[in-house]
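Can't paste images in this forum, so I'm doing it all in text. The chain is below; anyone willing to post the predicted structure tokens underneath?
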Amino acid sequence: PYTTLFRSSTGIAEIPLFDTSNAWTLARAFNETSIVTIPLFNTSNVSSLNGTFSNCSNLEYLPNIDTSKVTDVSFALWKCNSLKELPAWDLSKVSNFESFAQMDYYYGSSDIEVIPDYDVSSAVNVRYAFSGMTKVKTGIYRLYQKFAALGNQITNHTGTFAHTGIDTEEGRAERALIPQSWGGDLVEKQC
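Text version of the structure:
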């Protein structure tokens, strides 16, 4: 496995292409580095991206790597506040989304404006998964609907969309349709 491969290597801005074709995990491999982008690695056998790019505050773009076997993206893009857009990854087998793309809105949110139309049919834990992306304009409500349709399959949805979209008119309109327990603004009726 390639866990903690370049972890905390703050002097590295560019990662060289190397053979990852047999890797089953890239957990925390590039965590806390100064990278701006990564090459198109062969990730066809990878099942875990747990914390892979977490706290890579200079990371701007990610290629559409093969994520067809990935089941865990928890903290994968946590605090990647320089990201311009979320990658259009295949997340159909992912069960653990905890803090997947949680941005640190206190210290400058990312410029992400759209949450892709992800297939989240295997989701179980979505705690803070898409929180803190204050400039998002669209995709919040669509993704909430997909998660909500999964019913009891979702075991933790605390703050899934907390602070996401708060800086845009469109984002605030979508947040108004999402219950507060999910990080939205809709006040839920008490029974």
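The first helix runs from residue 140 to 149. The chain has two helices and no strands.
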